[in-house]
Amino acid sequence: MSLRTTVFLVVALLGGGLGLFYSGSSTVDFTNHLDRQLHPVSCSLLAGLQESSLLDESAAGCKAALFSPYSSFWRDRYWGGIPWSLPAMGLFGFALALALWGLVTRRGHEVAVSVGLMTAGSVALISSAVFFSIAMGQLHTVCKTCVGTYISSVLLDLGAVLVFLSAWKDRKAAGDQADRPSVRASWIGSLVVLAELGLAVGVPFLVYRAALPDYQKYVTQCGTLKTTEDKRGVLLPLTSGDPAGKVPAVMVVDPQCPACAAFHQRLKESPWFDRLAIQIAPLPLDKDCNWMMTDSMHPGSCLLTQAMICAKDRAGEVLEWSFQHQKEFRPIDKADRPAQRIREALLARWPEWKGCLDTPETRIALTSTLNWAVDQSLPVLTPQLYIQGKRLCDEDTDLGLEYAMTHLLGTR
Predict the structure, then answer these.
(1) DSSP string spanning 160-214?
(2) Beta strand 72-73 with 82-83: parallel, antiparallel or unpaired?
(3) CATH number for the domain including 357?
(4) Which residues contact 263 (CB under 8 A, 6 or more apart)?
(5) Arithmetic mean of pLDDT over the chain
């Protein structure tokens, strides 16, 4: 084996090692959430080596990637699904081991090593390209740990291509030496290496699946509505259209609640959204209208709720608009009251509601909405979702959403 091939094997080894490090860090972050609680997420090119916090705003990109439906597969079968970083660990680990074996044994120029590294590098590079396009096109954000994986994939594939070309020259230079493997032996060796690659990717998946606990007993035991009837007539439709044939659901939201906006987006992206006839139960966590609050958690949400009441059948449109403009409507400081800014923005968008926002009838309707929450003994928090009267657990509103919805609806 030439010095040139040795150097290129080191490049492939470095790519495999870095890829194993970053995919392993992502897998650890994912599995930490399997206790159905929130945990800090590593989001750095030095992932796992720096302290992280739940309040770390720089980790927003990694959180968006982790909680998105693209971070794992088979989410309807297993709580959270199987993270894509898990087979990535197997892939990079295999490349690392194969490159190391080629270096130690001085047989890195053999066909089997070249084929194995080329296959691993190509799969890694194509997968990284797909996930990068999803990050840019769907999530509109970048996960720093994922960037580390992308760089590792490029490094691994570059090393694999260079090893392939250099090893071919090494074999050609060797000519008809007696110790040169036959063509048949080379092909058999290549098939063995590819089988080992399959095992490296498949075994972690099988072990992970076998180790997962049974979550079914948790997702259906988080309470129910006292009655699914809307005797006060306060529930508002989230979407227009005929609800016939759809599963009735009630979503308790605050239009100024960031968690509500994130949950609403995840729900829209799920395959069950179009099967639900969702009605909105506004619960503004704002002391200006909510006597259950001693302080305003989301100032300005009372006014937005009044706008939803004025909108009636278009309440979902107002809610979507509110979610899109949350950053603009947040208080600048503790003394800031954003109600005036919200009012101006509302009337600029829907001037026809000027005579409705502050009428006694609208305020009475808002009070009735809050009384409905009292009648149902709802916890004073948002978001909440009830499917046919059964509550979706708070712990299942992100990674466990698809799994929980599958069991609440009683179907896959």
Answers:
(1) HHHHHHHHHHHHHHHTT-TTSPPHHHHHHHHHHHHHHHHHHHHHHHHHHHHH---
(2) antiparallel
(3) 3.40.30.10
(4) 383, 385, 397, 398
(5) 86
List strand residue ranges (DSSP E) for 365-404, in order.
Answer: 384-387, 390-391
Question: Whole-angstrom Cα distance, residue 168 to residue 138?
Answer: 41
Cβ-proximal residues to 59 (8 Å cutoff; 6+ apart), any chain = 40, 41, 42, 43, 52
Last-in-domain residue among 211, 228, 250: 211
Q: Retrieve residue 272's tokens.
A: 């069950």
- 348-365 pLDDT tens trace: 999 988 889 889 999 999
Q: How many CA atoms lie within 13 A of 233 on its CB side?
A: 4
- Please check whether residues 253 and 400 belong to one and the same domain: yes
Residues 250 and 114 in one domain: no
> Do 264 and 353 belong together in one domain?
yes
Domain residues for the domain of 9 are 3-211
Residues near 328 by beta carbon (within 8 Å), at least 6 away in sequence: 341, 345
- CA distances from residue 195 to 17, 257, 395 in whole angstroms, order as listed: 21, 50, 39
144-157 tens-digit pLDDT? 889 999 999 999 99
What's the burial of 96, exposed, middle or buried (CB within 10 Å: 0-12/13-18/19+)?
buried
CATH number of the structural domain spanning residue 24: 1.20.1440.130
In a domain, 228, yes or no: no
Cα dihedral sign for 384, 388, 391, 397? negative
One-letter amino acid for residue 396 of the chain? D
Q: At CA 33, angle to CA 28 and CA 36, rounded to 5? A: 160
Q: How many domains does the chain have?
A: 2
Q: For residues 396 and 38, is the Cβ–Cβ distance under 8 A?
A: no
- Tally the residues of the chain: 412
The sign of the dihedral angle between the CA atoms of 192, 196, 202, 208 is positive
**C-beta neighbour count of 386 within 10 angstroms:** 24
Q: 194 is written with which tokens?
A: 């590819």
pTM listed for this prediction: 0.80
